[in-house]
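Note to self: the last two entries modelled the partners one at a time, which told us nothing about the interface. This time every component goes in together.
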Amino acid sequence: MSTATTLPPEPQPDTLRTIARRFAHTAPPCDYWSLRLVDEVHEGLAVRDDVAEPSSIGASRGAMVTLVADGGVGYAATADLSSSGLAAAAERAARSAALHARLGLFDARVFPRTSLRVEYQSHVAQPWDQMTLADKLGLLTEACAGMDLGERVVERAAWLGHHRVHQLLVSSDGAHITQTLEHVHSGLAATAHIAGQTQTRTGGGRDHPGQGGLERLAATTLVDDAERVAAEAVALCEAPECPSGQMDLLLLPSQMTLQIHESIGHPLELDRILGDERNYAGLSFVTPDMFGTYRYGSSLLNVTFDPTLPGEVASYAADDEGQPAKRVHLIRDGILERPLGGELSQRRARLAGSACARASGWDRPPIDRMANINLEPNEEGLDDMIGRVERGVLMDTNRSWSIDDSRNKFQFGCELGRRIEDGELKGLVRNPGYRGVSAHFWRSLDGVGGRETLEVRGVRNCGKGEPNQSVYVGHASPPCLFRNIDVFGGGL
Amino acid sequence: MRPEAFFQLFEALQAGLGGEEILFAGLGGERSEFVRLNQNRVRQAGSVNAADLGLTLIRHGHQVEGSCPLGGDNEVDLARAQVLLRRLRERIAHVPEDPYLQYSTEPASSERCIDADLPSSEEAIGTLTDLADGLDLVGIWAAGGVMEGLASSLGHRHWHESRSFNLDWSCYLDRDKAVKASYSGFDWQPDVLAHKVNQQRAELSVLGHPERRIEPGRYRAYLAPAALAELMDLLAWGGFGLRDHRTQQTPLLRLATGETQLSPLLTVIEEHRRGLAPAFTGEGFVKPDQVSLIEEGWYQDCLADARSAKEYDTVVNAAAEYPESLAIAPGDLATADALRQLDTGILIGNLWYCNWSDRNACRMTGMTRFGTFWVEHGEPVAPLAVMRFDDSLYHLLGDRLEGLTRERELLLSAETYDGRSTDSALMPGALVSGVDLTL
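The predicted structure of the combined assembly is written out below.
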C-alpha cells in the first residue's frame, strides 16, 4: 500500500509575516530598508536503468536584509531568522553600506524604493502531493522501461521534480509583496552507442519547465515520449553526419529557446551594458545609443519581456526590487526598443527597462535577469516554411552552447537534425551545429511560425553574477527560418 | 557553525534512531563577505551566513535523502533536523531497495582546519582601489570561512574548514580588451597584489596597440595555464567519471579503448591530498591521496564515487565523478622561453564558454578572452580580436602538443553557485603547433 508523499509543511505566510513584523519593529535607523524572506521546498526523484536513484527532499529558508544609509547601500543574508539573527544581519548590512558610501559606484539615493502591495501565486490545478511517492516512482519506472530498446541503448534515465518558492518582500516604505511560485518538471534521456558513436536524445518535458502542478505532466508526455526518445538516440548513431556549408536553417522551438536566450536575452541585460558583468558573464555588443534605432533583426523579429503569461516559468507580479511587472516590447519589427534592466540599472543608465531585477535565492542580491523573453509568432505554418527551403537543415533540441563575452560570435549544437531538400523534409543527420554572429544572424530571419506553432519553454540553469546566481527563465517561440547560415556536423 | 555544535546536534539526532536505522549527516556552510566592483568602485557589498544539513537515512538496503537549513540556534536547528528525519522515515517505506547503496562501515575521523590572515573587506577593497587608481577594474572580492562536516551513526566524524580570500578581477582598456588576474589564498600580502596590478598595467600597454584581426584557420598558439584550465574544466564534464566511461559517454572513449593516444607529454592527476576539498566523501569514505587519470598520454583510471563503485564493482576514489583538485604534470619548457618557442602565433591568456562540438571526437569550441595577443618573433605585438576555436583535444593535447611549461599555476576556483567552491587546479602552460580558429 502506498501513502501520500509527505512534504515539509506549507510555508505559512503568517510565519513570514511575523518575522517581517518583528524586523520592522527593530530595524536600525537608516534611510531605507527592505527585507526579503524566502522559504523554498523541493523534491527530486529519478529512475536510471530501471533502478530508483535516492530520492531527495529539501528546504531552504532565509532572509536578505538591504539597508540604505548615509549614501551607501549594503546587504546581508542570513539563515538565522531570530530577532538577534536579523539584527546581526542588519549590522553587517550597515557595515557594507558604509563601504559602499565611501567607495560606491553610484550614489545610493538612486537605489529604488518600493511601497508596492501585491500578491501572486502560480496556478496549480493538481497539487504535487496528490500523487503518492510510490506512484511517482512507478511512473518514472514505466517511462524508463519504455526506453529499453535493447543493448544498443546504454543508459536510460527518467526524472521528476517539484520546486516551490514562497517569498515575502517588505520595506520601510510599506511594501508587502507575497509571491508563491511553484514548478513541476520532468524529463527523459536515452543514450545509445553503436560502433564508436554515442548519441543522447532527451524529451519528456526536459526543456519544458513551467509553473503549475502535476497537471503539467499531461503536456510533457513523460511515458508516451519514452520509446520515441530512445528510438531517435539509436537512429542518430546510425545517421550520417550533418552536412557542412552555407545553407538555410530551420530551428524548432526546442532550439529557439537557446537562440533567444543567448543572443537576445543576455545581450540586452542592462547590467552587462553598464559593465557590471565584465569580469565573469561578460559585456554586450549592444550599446546604450542603439535603443530606438538599431536594426537587431529582420522586420519579422518581435520580442517581448512578458512576466504576465500564465504558466510560463518566470511569470511574477513584481521583481525582487519590488517593481511591478508588465509586458513590454524589447524588439519591435526588428528595431531594438529597450533593454532588460531593473529600476536601479534604469536609473544608472537613464534608460527605460523592465521589472527584471531578480535574485536566485535569499542569499543573493537581485541583479538584472531575463524573466520570460518571448519571440512573438507571425502567421506561417511549419510545413510552409519547409516548403520554402531548397537546401537546408532542421534542428531540434539544444545540446551545446557557446558564445563570446560580447554575446556576438556564437556556436550552438543540437541533438537531432533533418535535411531539407527542395521543400521536403528528408533523413536524420547527427551532430548538427551552426555558427553565426548575433549582430547579423537575426537579420537573416525569413520565417516565423504562427500562433498554433508557438511553444512555451524555458531553461532552469541561467547563470551569471558575482557571487554566482542561477535562475529559471522562460522562452516562448514558434519555429523560425534563417537563410544562408554556416552549418556543420561532427568528426575529428 | 563550529564542529562541536554540529557533532552535538548529530548526537542528539542519533539518540532517536531505531536499531535498524543508519544515519549519515553532512553539513555545508559558509560565512562569506562579497564585494563586487565596477570601474574600480564598489557596485554591491554584502555578506552571507548560511548552513545546510543533509541527512541520508538507510534501513534494510533502502535509502532516502533530505536537507534543511540551519540558522545557528541549537534548539531550533535540532527541532528542524528532527522534523526532517521524521519525514525521511515516512518516505523510506515507499522507496524500493537500492542495489547501488554503498557507505563506509569503518568509522573514521579527521579534522582539517586551514586558517587565514584575512583583512577586512574595507581594508582589502581600499588597498585594491588605491593600487588600481585610474584603471577600469571590475571583479569580486570573496572572503571568509567555508566548512563541511560529516557524522554517521556508524561513528564517522569528519570536519573540514578553511578560511581564505579570493580576489578575481580584470582591467579593461576598451570594450572587450582586458587583462585578467586573481589573487587568492590564506596570507594577505598587499605587496603581492601590487605586483599583480602593476603587471596588468604593463599588459594593458600592449593592449593599447591597434587590434590584429586574423582569418579563420590553423595557428600556432601558447595557452597560458588559465586557458588550459578552461579546456580541462570542460573535459571534467563527463570525461573522467566511471559511469560516463561504462556507459560510453565519455569524450575520452577513443583514448580509453586505446584507439587514440594523447601526447606522451601529458600526465593528468586528481590530487586529493594537495587540494582544498574535504578528504572524505559524503558516504564516509576517505579519498586516496591521488588518482592517476592519464599517464604519458594513456588512460589510466576513472573517478568512482560510492554509487558507481558499487554498480561497477570497484573501489571508491572520489566524492563525485569529476575532478576537484586536478593537476597536469609539468613539462620542461621554461615559461620565460614559451613565447620564443612559439615564435609567431597566438598567446591565449584565457578561454571562455567552452562546450562540446562533438563529444565522440573530443572536439570542443570556445572563445578567446582576456589577454590574448598576436605574437611575432617571440614578442606580443598586438591584441587579437576575439576568435572562436573548434578543435579536438586529441590534437591540442595529442599530436599537436609541443610542450608543457616547467612552472605551474595554482588556480583556486572563484565559483560560488553552491557556496564558495573548494575546487582548485594546478596547471602548466601549453605550446601547440596549431589550433583551429573558425569564426
